[in-house]
Write a structure and sequence with these properties.
Number of helices: 16
Number of strands: 23
Bound molecules: nicotinamide-adenine-dinucleotide
Radius of gyration: 25 Å
Shape: globular
Low-confidence stretches: none
Largest sheet: 7 strands, mixed
Helix content: 25-40%
Structural class: alpha/beta
């Protein structure tokens, strides 16, 4: 077994910490352990927070020019070495290299957004609000903020938060997923190369113990979390109970509504891309196709034909889809295929037993298509988070919208139609935070904010974009008067403009 050990990153250097707990990191396409990672104790988290706290006065007080210069340099380094990062992602997550490169590109977008922090964090000024009195507002950083990220985007999700938090003047403790932790340390090393002072970004690895230590730490001002809904709820409730600002993005079950007038080739391509890209391990994956009569049979034919051509295999080879993250997760996802049959659905394509172009021990499951899924089945109600695409047939647009709106998640959705009026109505009526019109994975660009509704987001602020800037800063309003001959006199009344 490989015994290479991944350390924490504290105060600008690798750190072993005091805990002796560790976990294995796998290459999912081989099913082999490639390294071990340390699991932080509360004392290790405390060391990382202490480093971030010590770095805050200088970094928070540094000029915006200095902070954004580091971001510009980081952008150049990341762009020059993006292939290296994509390889790290594929080696630990399993997604194919082109998909990993796409993840890095979307992360880079947020770095570029944060380079504009001088403009983004500008306050307002009202001259002479009262006679001789000026009122202005400014935005200041919060202090130490924690970022807790999931396995499915080991670079992009940290990059949704890190650049905005840091450019705004905060210092950070990042706790990446213990399943694919190397990308986070790689990013911290590149930030140091870009000129970021030691202690501004720290990385601690681990599990619940590390997360709970962050949620309850007196010196942590805010938490940005992304992961499954039960953990997001726990993070939100515990973090806010400890007086922190929290944004906790949770799970999803995304529907694609297909009207009979849609371009069915576009729909079939989109269902494949959004259903099976990254082996369905995306919070914006489409997991349910809602087919309005009479479109289902024709659409299923076109999807099935395309599924037959997909190559499942090692992401470093010419594959379309890689393995799942762990053997346990693969088995859990595969279990839903039996469940579907038991619940009366029709398994059209069964991905079990797929012949993958990869390691014999890899965590493989092929693309799976299930028709006529009852909406009472857990195959419909659970977030499966794997390459399993369900089809639900409905008789009208209205029935489709009602179905989507009745779900407990509200992350992403899409409508496919050539009818602009229907699309416009859908955009207004649908109770989901991110909507696509003939676009299957509507992840907003960096200058709009990312986040769902209902149980897909706990808290008031979405990630990145204007809401990200608001989340990582607090506004201060200043009312100022410089003495002139008009001052003076005692007046116990409430101040008002005169
Ligand atoms: P997860 O909830 O298992 O883990 C997320 C983070 O929480 C990890 O850092 C993990 O170490 C930590 N964690 C795990 N168990 C914990 C516990 N009991 N207490 C405290 N912390 C704990 O999620 P995952 O499996 O890594 O990621 C997949 C999930 O993330 C899916 O549900 C997916 O929809 C969701 N996700 C959501 C978005 C979004 O933007 N809404 C984006 C990406 C992923």
């Amino acid at each position: 077994m490989n015994t290479e050990m991944l350390d924490h990153w504290i105060d600008g250097a690798p750190a072993k910490g005091e805990s002796t707990r560790t976990g294995a990191v796998y290459d999912p396409a081989l099913g082999e352990v490639t390294k071990q990672v340390r699991y932080a104790s509360a004392a290790d988290v405390d060391a990382a927070v202490a480093s971030a706290r010590a770095a805050f006065p200088a970094w928070g007080g540094a000029s915006i020019a200095k902070r954004t210069q580091v971001m510009f340099a980081f952008r150049e380094i990341l762009n020059a070495r993006k292939d290296e990062l994509a390889e790290i992602i594929t080696g630990e997550h399993g997604k194919v290299l082109s998909d990993a490169a796409g993840e890095v590109a979307r992360g880079l977008e947020v770095v570029e957004f944060a380079c504009g922090m001088a403009h983004l964090s500008k306050g307002g000024f009202s001259a002479n609000a009262s006679t001789g009195v000026d009122v202005y507002s400014l935005r200041q950083p919060l202090g130490v903020v924690a970022i807790i990220s999931p396995f499915n985007f080991p670079a992009m999700v940290p990059l949704w938060f890190l650049p905005v938090a840091v450019a705004a003047g905060n210092t950070v403790v990042l706790k990446p997923s213990e399943k694919d932790p190397s990308a986070a340390v790689w990013l911290a090393e590149r930030l140091k190369e870009a000129g970021l002072p030691d202690g501004v970004v720290n990385v601690v690895h681990g599990d619940k113990e590390a997360v709970d230590a962050l949620l309850t730490h007196d010196d942590v001002a805010a938490i940005s979390f992304v992961g499954s809904t039960p953990i997001a709820r726990h993070v939100y409730e515990t973090g806010t109970a400890h007086g922190k600002r929290v944004q906790a993005l949770g799970g999803a079950k995304n529907h694609m509504l297909v009207l009979p007038d849609a371009d069915l080739d576009l729909v079939a391509d989109s269902a494949i891309n959004a259903g099976f890209g990254s082996a369905g391990e995306r919070c914006m994956a489409v997991s349910v196709v809602v087919a309005v009569d009479p479109v289902a049979d024709e659409l299923i034919g076109r999807i099935t034909e395309r599924m037959g051509k997909l190559v499942v295999g090692d992401g470093r080879r010419e594959s379309d889809m890689g393995p799942l993250i762990t053997a346990d997760h693969r088995d859990k996802v595969a279990g839903y295929i039996d469940l579907a049959a038991d619940d009366g659905a029709e398994v059209v394509v069964d991905g079990r037993g797929v012949e993958a172009d990869g390691g014999a021990g890899g965590f493989w499951l092929g693309p799976t298509l299930i028709d006529k899924v009852p909406t009472t089945s857990t195959v419909y109600t659970d977030e499966i988070f794997g390459p399993v695409l369900s089809v639900v047939r409905v008789s009208s647009y209205g029935e489709g919208v009602e179905l989507i709106n009745s779900g407990r998640y509200g992350n992403g959705t899409a409508i496919f139609t050539n009818d602009g009026g229907a699309a416009r109505r859908f955009v207004n009526e649908i109770e989901v935070g991110m909507v696509g019109v003939n676009v299957p994975i509507p992840v907003p660009v960096a200058y709009h904010s990312f986040g769902g509704w209902k149980q897909s987001l706990f808290g008031d602020a979405k990630a990145y974009g204007p809401q990200g800037v608001d989340f990582y800063t607090r506004e201060k309003a200043v009312t100022s008067r410089w003495l002139d001959p008009s001052h003076g006199g005692v007046d116990l009344g409430f101040p008002r403009s005169v």
